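Predict the 3D structure for this chain.
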Amino acid sequence: MAIHYYLSAFPMEALIASELEPKQFGSYMATGSKKGSDELIIFAEIEGNCTPEFDWQYAQEKCTPHPNGDPKHSVYLSVYRVLEYIPLHSIGSIYLTTRDGRSLELSPDPGARYPSGRDYYLYQELCPIKPLIVSRLDPMEFSAYMTDEKNHVYTPKIVFSNLKTPNFEDPENTGHTGGFLFNKKGHFLSCIASISDPEGKANKTFDRSHVESFSFQTIEDAVYIGDGKELKIYPMPSVDEIKNIDYDWGRSALLY
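Done. Predicted structure below.
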């Protein structure tokens, strides 16, 4: 059986070898072999042997079928500083896995355009850090800022998504933004005001624990992986597109 290598980005960072195909792996990771867990998972398939920082030989030795012929589900190679060492060009499709183990594949699109020119953006950082950020920087600028080693605090690479924001003037038709932002409307508007001054801070931490209520239905444009020089864009299909691509995944993700 072929060995696949997966970068787990959310909810935990890890490098995992497995003989499971991506969607089988997503189901296993989300629900567990004994169906005792259920959580959202974001992971990417990567090229093996893409960097010397990890013990690929160990994976070859340990990731072998069970005596009864069943595939090996997982062999952990690292749970620390994984994203940092994986070259961007070695990261393939990413998979959004729902709590009941259904996975939607998102492929990187070199021709995709990120949203620019907006007054503000709402970013959910996913790996290796997880704050919810209000920013006036577009996705490329945000990635460059967060990975700039000249900053006092930075990370070499980052996985994040821009989220939908509510229309407070028309809450009944604002879409799937969740009640979280409505419950903290005053704080949200205060954060927007604080990053509106071109001479002031470009980013404002809105919440440090919102990731616990993060859901796929709140993703607006895409999931991004950046290192400051390059930004890989994984466009999020529209609801109508998802109905054609994988209707059951959309229902599981509560998109409709």
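DSSP finds eight helices and twelve strands in the chain.
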